[in-house]
Amino acid sequence: MKSLEELKKIREKMQNKVILREGSAEKRIVVGMATCGIAAGARPVLNTFVEEIAKRNLTGTVEVGQTGCIGMCRFEPIVEVFEGDKRVTYVYVNPDKAKEIVEKHIVGGEPIVEYTIGAAEK
Amino acid sequence: MKELSLNILDIAQNSIHADATLVQILLDETDESLTLSIVDDGKGMSEEFVSRVTDPFSTTRTTRKVGMGLPLLKLAAEQTGGSLAIESRERTLYPEDHGTKVTAFFYKNHLDFTPLGDVVSTVVSLVQGSPDVDFLFRHTFPDHTVELDTREIREVLGEEVPLSSPDVLVWIRETLTEQYEGTDEEDE
Ligand SMILES: Nc1ncnc2c1ncn2[C@@H]1O[C@H](COP(=O)(O)OP(=O)(O)OP(=O)(O)O)[C@@H](O)[C@H]1O
Ligand code: FES
Ligand SMILES: [Mg+2]
Q: Is A15's Cβ below 8 Å from some Cβ in B?
């Protein structure tokens, strides 16, 4: 049985770390979670990013956020990756693509051009 | 929507956008029916707005003219023979007790009933996206109840540890999953 004791342990473990404040991450992954995004499959995409970032211990450097309408329903699920003043917009994202984006773009530093909106619009 | 839990995620986002500090997601199940209530203490809507909000051509959003969230939930309820009701008190008129309650009633055995699906992922997604908002999730069955109250979690964690921390989200997922599986199962 999960207990509040376990939560206390999490608290103790976390108190020794410097906790990331919003905006201090190097990279930010934002998932569109308006009605159309949710209907198109944004929830498992979001949860895949959250799990992959935690698994790779990137919580301090990569932030995962949610946003409402991005204004391009037909491309949902949409994910935007921000780094400095650069923005890459991924479209029709699914959990497998999300894992690949973490591996190649977030960790490897190379955006996956074929999944971006630029490629989809051609 | 493929799962009702996705509608729940969507409707709870409305409460968050209305500046709620507490969002209650209440599911009450019998053999024949499912009642879903989403109750918030946000800024509310005017009576006039409530009367047309389930019509897909009304929204206060500026990016797009059509709000789809409430009309979709209404459709999901009505296609089982059930119904949707919205009660709301606007902050400007009720500064002390404002907020919105959306109640959807479903007949579970109807052919067009949309299964609830992965409601645990819905709760985790909500906490991840809005770690400063409190959520009370309660799913009542005839013989047991599944419950999570982030106010209790927050009390244990203190102020420094955000509810969106990965370890906390895992804890929330596991605690709910265990409650759904029942507490009397053998250890794996
Ligand atoms: N809990 C609430 N508190 C206050 N206002 C609400 C609430 N729920 C809905 N509204 C109002 O009703 C409108 C319509 O909601 P609805 O969920 O149908 O569509 P939407 O959120 O505008 O767009 P989307 O299709 O992305 O969900 C919202 O824009 C908001 O103005
Ligand atoms: S509602 Fe679809 S992208 Fe905005
Ligand atoms: Mg909505």
A: yes
